[in-house]
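How a chain folds remains the central question behind the approach discussed here. No coordinates are needed to read the tokens, only the vocabulary itself. For completeness, the protein is quoted in full, as a sequence line and a line of structure tokens:
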Amino acid sequence: WNMDSTGYRLPTEAEWEHAARAGGAHGGNLPGEAPLSEQGWYGKNAQRRPQRVGQMLSNRWGLHDLVGNVWEWCNDWYDGSYYSSSPGSDPAGPDSGATRVPRGGGWSSVAGYCRVANRNFNYPDYRSSSGGFLVLTLLRFQLLNPLGSLVEQLVNRSHLVDGVTGLLLGCEDH
């Protein structure tokens, strides 16, 4: 749960949602235009267990399983009213709380829980076969022009390994 990590860390809710939507708005349900049965594993198609990452359609950034399969832990503490008064840009979540936020729904979820906009909460020590995580890291490199195409190339090269999704979080100019 260390936001100051120099290696890997969990995303904030805002980062998770931005990744799930591949930077777009998408109306709140799914990361793309295809139906849930083509984008995520859930109660009707998961055969009562989590599935290997990457078998379903990805979003525009090439990320798989952001809805369904496993609930993905976020770094944020849960506060049901936080977003009514949060910063408009890059909210990092409340400073404290009793429960943390998992997002995206899981293999045993009903379709209504497997939505990008859906929020849930659990105690930090909660364990389940329907829980997992998305790992973020900060990549440092010399800025190249155009930055957009470089970032897109790096995101498209992120790799998926049985339940762990690699994703570019950002970059620093050195």
